[in-house]
Structure formats: structure tokens, C-alpha cells
Amino acid sequence: MMNYVLCGWYETEFGLEVFEVEGLDLEACVTQVRHDSDDFGHTDMELNGGIGTPDYDVTSKVIKMVCAS
């Protein structure tokens, strides 16, 4: 079974943070990144996601997820 992959960058007070994480789904990936950074979801970012290959833009969806929680 292939994992969901989330990758991209987001802005921090120290510059851009580039990352790639794998999880069961988009929500699990977002949870992982939010655990590592309080800035994630509240700053400028560009994110791609997909099963096995992060081949579509999920930036707007992630922003909505973070704002809803």
C-alpha cells in the first residue's frame, strides 16, 4: 500500500522551511508537520500532495484544515 505524501514549503521567522512527510492520508501528514512547527498553516506556503507521488496542489485544503482546528 502506498502512503500519502505531502511536500512543499512554508514560511518561518527564519526563512522558508522545505519538507516532505508521509502518512496514511492528508490529515495525518498535516498533523505531523503541525506537531513540528507552530507556524505551519498560518504563514505563506505552497504544498503538493498525493498517494505515492505529490502531484496536485493541496495548499487551500490544508489552510482550511488548519483554520478549522
What would you say this structure looks like, in words?
The protein is α+β, with helices and mostly antiparallel strands and 69 residues long. It has one domain (4-68). Helix content is 30%, strand content 39%. It has 2 helices and 4 strands. The protein has helices at residues 26-36, 59-68, and strands spanning 4-12, 15-23, 45-51, 56-57. It has a 4-stranded antiparallel sheet. It starts with a strand and ends with a helix. The model has no long low-confidence stretch (mean pLDDT 92).
Keywords:
four-stranded antiparallel β-sheet, 30% helix, alpha+beta, globular, single chain, 2 helices, 69 residues
Please give the radius of gyration in angstroms: 11 Å
Helix percent band: 25-40%
Largest sheet: 4 strands, antiparallel
What pattern of helices and strands is seen along the backbone? EEHEEH
Number of helices: 2
What is the count of structural domains? 1
Round the mean pLDDT to the nearest integer and report it: 92
Task: Classify the oligomer.
Answer: single chain
Concise account of the structure shown:
The protein is α+β, with helices and mostly antiparallel strands. The chain has one domain.
Q: What topology emerges from the helices and strands here?
A:
Blueprint lengths: L3 E9 L2 E9 L2 H11 L8 E7 L4 E2 L1 H10 L1
Antiparallel strand pairs: 1-2, 1-3, 3-4
